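Please discuss these two lines.
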Amino acid sequence: MTHHLVVLGAGYAGLIAAKGAARRLRRSGGVRITLVNASDRFVERVRLHQLAAGRPLRDLP
């Protein structure tokens, strides 16, 4: 039987939850993880002050 885990929101908590679940469940097989987010990019909000100062940020798809 295949299980499907859906994580809604890819902010810090959602991204960490999805990555942690993928790491823990990798060996068990039969688990599919879907991460749902409104945008296809992760915004590091703690670095927005650097963007305001004109420094480029890493693109995290």
Observations:
- The chain has two helices and two strands.
